[in-house]
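User: structure tokens for this one?
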Amino acid sequence: MPFRKDRQLYRSFYGILGFYPRRIELYQQALTHKSLSVKAEGKGVLHNERLEYLGDAILDAVVGDILYNHFQGEREGFLTSVRSRVVQRETLGSLADQMGLTDLVQSNLMSKTHNSYMAGNAFEALVGAVYLDRGYEYCKWFVRNRILGKYINLDKIAYRDSNFKSKLLEWCQRYRVEAKFELLEENRDKDTMSPQFLSRVLVSGVECGRGQGYSKKESHQKAAEMALARLKKNSSLKKKVLQEVKKINNGTNTDTTSIICAEKKDAGQISESGRASADGGAPEAGQ
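Assistant:
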């Protein structure tokens, strides 16, 4: 058998992957940090950075493929936002810890926590190794069955924190104020060329939060999240917001209904004008 030379290493990889490696050297390289790289004749320095580069691209494709089929009917912005949450460095680092991958990473650093990205990088490199060893379909099987099936709930990660606009709407209704979202910037990520949006939210004309995301909805959610946090912790900001609406009520605009956020509809989201919209951010799971 090809793995008799190092049964324990093969078994460790089998426990993580769900199949035995064919080219064990790829997986060893995937778990070798550049601080412990070795020279191989005719192959240059062997560490995991090149595999990490490849794994990053493959992981994006595989996760995108899985999400496309899992969330049928959802638009591109939603899928892009969910994918970014799944493949973000913090998530990958946590996955590596849960899988036991972190303990297998070889480095010369005093502690693996010295580099918070080390585990996440190793996970991406592992995906690159699987791709070179077994191909795309094995990568897809590995991510779908060994990762998403065991450690990540796609529905939960997709809809978490997605009700901040709804919560801000409720806050506005309570204090009879208006929330207005404005798009400040629209550009593209230099590496992925994915669209990015920067928005801000004004409450009674006072800027309370900003947010950036891969869709306008995501940027609005993040802006609303910041606004809620600031209004809760910053009493002077809350006072300023309420003073502004008081000025309006005591001034030329006596129609208070013009500054009241509309009643919640459907998902209870606030649109750019501060009114409820059926096509706002996705509701929290269970709603």
